[in-house]
Amino acid sequence: MSLYVILMGIQGAGKGLQAKRIEEHFGIPQVSTGDLFRAMRTRRDALATKVQQIMASGQLVDDETTNAIVVDRLAQADAAGGVILDGYPRNQIQAAFLEAHLAEKGARVNSVLLLELDLFTAFKRAFGRVSAADGSSYNYYYNADGVDFNWAQDPAGQFPPRLEASIAGGGESLRRRPDDASADAIIKRIDTYLETTQPLISYFEARDIVNRIDADQSIEAVWTDIKRALE
């Protein structure tokens, strides 16, 4: 039996980490539209060329093209048993298309996992997070053990202080995602999520497939709830 899961949640809810666990436990790949768009940059087929032209013009990729990219990915061998969709669908047009496409294959969306987190906690998780080269992550607000955090002042006083971090005792400098360094950018992402996600939640709730998961728990507790919902 195939398993098609849509993973939804605000930034900082832990979608990436939990998606990896779903991949490992249920044997289905994570399909992120962001990754798919980036992959199109190195392909030379007609669909990739179309996407490259759209992105080069500075326009947003339209629903029809986005749907075609997802269909292309779902046709690959590793997706035969289902996928975890992250970042798709983004609106009800895409959601309806996905349902129709899966129905043609005799499948359906089995579960919409909604990782819920209050907005202030979501902001702090994004604004305070840093990572090491080996993938280990830390946070100024929640997980600072063994890390030296420092607010570096702008010498000219024209910009806000910059958060810097390194492993305690002069160790590795830790990285921060550029889009996490701007509070304004994080708030805009939150606003966009609220504007685009709420209509989709209502859409899928009408189909009784939304599983609400409290993301303000330990990683293990969240995973336990996800596994229970999917099994």
Let me know the average pLDDT. 90
The CATH homologous superfamily name of the largest domain equals P-loop containing nucleotide triphosphate hydrolases
Strand content bin: 15-25%
Sheet with most strands = 5 strands, parallel
Per the CATH scheme, the topology name of the largest domain is: Rossmann fold
Question: Helix tally?
Answer: 8
What is the C-alpha radius of gyration, as a whole number of Å?
Answer: 19 Å
In short:
With 231 residues, this protein is of the alpha/beta class. The protein folds into two domains: 164 residues, 3-Layer(aba) Sandwich (Rossmann fold), CATH 3.40.50.300; 47 residues, no CATH class.
Any overview of this molecule?
The protein is an alpha/beta fold and about 230 residues long. It has 2 domains: about 5-120 and about 185-230, Rossmann fold; about 130-175, no CATH class. About 45% of the residues lie in helices and about 20% in strands. It contains 8 helices and 9 strands. α4 (about 65-75) packs parallel to α5.
Features:
231 residues; alpha/beta; Rossmann fold; 2 domains; two-stranded antiparallel ribbon; 9 strands
Any chance you could write out the topology, listing elements then pairs?
Layout: E1 3-9, H1 15-26, E2 30-32, H2 33-39, H3 46-56, H4 63-74, E3 82-86, H5 92-104, E4 111-116, H6 119-127, E5 129-131, E6 137-139, E7 147-152, E8 162-167, H7 183-205, E9 210-214, H8 219-230
Parallel strand pairs: 1-3, 1-4, 2-3, 4-9
Antiparallel strand pairs: 5-6, 7-8
